[in-house]
Structure formats: C-alpha cells, structure tokens
Amino acid sequence: MQINYSLMEREAEKRVFRVAKDRGVAVIVNRPFGRGDLFNRVRGKALPDWAVEFDCKSWAQFFLKWIIAHPVVTCAVPATGNPHHMEDDLSGGMGRLPNEQLRQRMVEFVAGL
Predict the structure, then answer these.
(1) Which of 9, 69, 71, 102 is 20 to 30 Å apart from 94, CA to CA?
(2) How far apart (Å, rounded) are the C-alpha atoms in residues 42 and 59?
(3) CB 110 within 8 A of CB 38
(4) DSSP of 1-18, one letter per residue?
(5) Spatial distance between the Cα atoms of 98 and 92, rounded to a whole number of angstroms
(6) CA–CA separation, 77 vs 79, rounded Å?
(7) Could you read off the pLDDT tens digit of each residue along the chain, which spans 113 residues?
C-alpha cells in the first residue's frame, strides 16, 4: 500500500501499520517531508548534535531515516527534480538508522520547534 506518512502526519501508525504488518503488506511512504512543511519548520535551525548517532547529515536525511527505521515501512518516495536533493535523499538510506528510542526523541525534538 502507498500512504502519506511523516513526522507531522503520523495517523498511519494507529490505523494502517498494524494491518499491514499482520497481513505482510509492503508499505510505501508518500510525502515524507509533509509537502515541504517539515523543511519550513526547521528552516534556519541546526540538526541536533545527537543526529550523528545514526549517520545523519541533513534535515532531509533526518526525516527519511525516521520513516524508514519504522519496521513496517518498506520504502519512502521523496519526490524531487533536483539532483542535489536526490543525492541527499539517497544518503538518508545509508548508514545507521535510529532505534525506537531515538525515533521518539526525533518526534519530541521536531514537536518542540
């Protein structure tokens, strides 16, 4: 299935993910940046120092790593026509991913901005 899911749009966790897991259905995530709203929220703000714990070097990677670290998510589809953004997005799938404790810390951090 293909759904919208981001740090700002988390309804799928409650309604969809359990069914997908129980039925072995792949989950493809649309709009991982919340139509750009997440970038507006963090504009001018530095990544938290602890983002290095999961090899994160940009906000795009921060948002994507949070998504693909969820055990039900198969992949994320960040739309872009910009080659530099595409390269950065691809790096979001490289290296370490945040564990559940770090994922929760990410939620709290972004909510506090």
Answers:
(1) 9
(2) 8
(3) yes
(4) -EEE-BTTB-HHHHHTHH
(5) 11
(6) 6
(7) 999 999 999 999 988 999 999 999 999 999 999 888 899 999 999 999 999 999 999 999 999 999 999 999 999 999 888 999 999 999 999 999 999 999 999 999 999 98
